[in-house]
Write a structure and sequence with these properties.
Layout lengths: L8 H7 L6 E3 L12 H7 L7 E7 L2 E6 L13 E5 L7 H4 L13 E9 L14 E5 L4 E6 L6 E5 L2 E4 L4 E7 L4 E4 L5 E5 L3 E8 L4 H14 L23 H15 L2 H12 L17 H9 L4 E3 L5 E4 L2 E4 L2 E2 L5 H9 L2 E2 L1 H4 L6 H12 L3 E3 L2
Antiparallel strand pairs: 1-11, 2-3, 2-4, 4-5, 5-13, 6-11, 6-13, 7-10, 7-12, 8-9, 14-18, 14-19, 15-16, 16-17
Helix pairs in contact: 7-10
């Protein structure tokens, strides 16, 4: 399915992105669900897939986590099944991510799909990331409030909610409608009938994650091994006092690592190209040889990228799933970054370089790209 988004991106970026929520009526015209509720329920039975059931009865909230063995205990109202990273496991669903790539691949996270019966939802809450919520089968009532400081509480240890709020958007969504919600705007949605919702979420690392990831990279690569020194040390009256100039020197030691462009680029490429969710990896058996990859490409075969694989470019370097693609053929690796399918034409003369074919063979044998059977 080729989903065409009915949206003026320039106006959206200027007026709404990270500024104001927006209801896009019939953002996808004549919307067709890429999967059924039964297929979603089947995915939630798999060990590798992150899923949860959220329900309420008489104001009491319950949350359980998959994999699930049965749904026979569920009633006809007031529950939702939510499954993360469905785009990693279900090819037709991954097509819903493509229209949003204009906002940059590195910021995109995953596709969460929920199925709700009447009254089903997760209650009023906040998200700290941008999200586009696409209405599929059925109808759902959505309310969005103004961004303001709000106290959060936990009606269940695995559920974070906010108090009731006054709505600035209060609408019933039909199939093909899309609701964009920036970070920090309270919102709640509950199903009016059996319904499917598709949430395209965006990645927004906080400073703590960045510092933690950078520190791990420094340790793994044995960087920053130089020690503090103070050849201009002077006598002090208070031996317990750490002087301001000493703190300045320590800060400079730390900032020096951050201010090395190559170090920062290498780290961030590895860090941000890693998926936060499991991938449906299936390395070929037996593994391919270099000449097999070369011959298949020469015969016109296409290489398909694994669903959910993060392939990103910074400067003249390309990264895949936390690894640098070490080659001088930037045109070819850029094609791997930009396109979900590549062939000999897109890869160009790189395929005549045995070193590039060796790299490509390693990527295929890792399960990152594959040929159709």
């Amino acid at each position: 399915m080729d989903y065409q988004l009915n949206l003026d991106w320039q106006a959206f970026l200027q007026n709404h992105w990270q500024k104001r929520p927006l209801l896009i009526k019939q953002g996808f015209r004549q919307f067709i669900d890429p999967l059924s509720p039964d297929e979603l329920a089947g995915l939630a039975m798999e060990n590798e897939i992150d899923s949860r059931l959220v329900s309420q009865k008489n104001g009491r909230w319950e949350v359980s986590h998959g994999p699930f063995e049965t749904y026979d205990h569920l009633g006809a109202k007031d529950w939702s099944l939510l499954v993360q990273a469905v785009d990693h496991w279900h090819l037709p669903s991954s097509a819903l991510m493509k229209p949003f790539r204009v906002l940059s691949d590195w910021r995109m996270d995953d596709l969460m799909i929920s199925f709700s019966v009447p009254g089903g939802g997760v209650g009023p809450h906040l998200d700290q990331y941008d999200v586009f919520i696409i209405q599929g089968k059925g109808r759902r009532h959505w309310r969005v409030g103004e961004k303001m400081p709000m106290k959060q509480h936990c009606p269940h240890p695995d559920l974070l909610q906010v108090d009731p709020f006054e709505a600035i958007i209060d609408e019933e969504m039909m199939p093909g409608d899309i609701l964009y919600i920036p970070p920090g705007f309270p919102h709640e949605g509950y199903a009016l009938e059996d319904s499917l919702n598709y949430s395209v979420g965006f990645r927004a690392p906080n400073a703590r994650e960045l510092f933690s990831g950078f520190a791990d990279y420094i340790l793994a690569n044995e960087l920053g091994s130089y020690r503090y020194s103070d050849p201009e040390l002077t006598f002090r009256d208070n031996p317990a006092l750490i002087q301001a100039n000493e703190l300045t020197t320590l800060r400079s030691m730390m900032r020096e690592l951050l201010e090395q462009p190559e170090t920062l680029q290498d780290w961030f490429g590895e860090f941000i190209s890693q998926s936060r969710h499991e991938l449906d990896l299936a390395p070929p058996e037996p593994p391919y040889e270099n000449d097999e990859i070369y011959e298949l490409l020469k015969q016109g075969e296409e290489l398909n990228r694994l669903n959910g694989l993060r392939v990103l470019r910074i400067g003249d370097q390309c990264f895949v799933n936390g690894e640098l693609m070490d080659t001088s053929h930037i045109h070819a690796t850029d094609a791997l970054c930009k396109h979900n399918k590549v062939d000999a034409q897109l890869l160009g003369d790189a395929i005549d370089d045995v070193r590039f074919i060796s790299l490509l063979t390693a990527l295929v044998n890792s399960g990152y790209w594959y040929f159709n059977d």
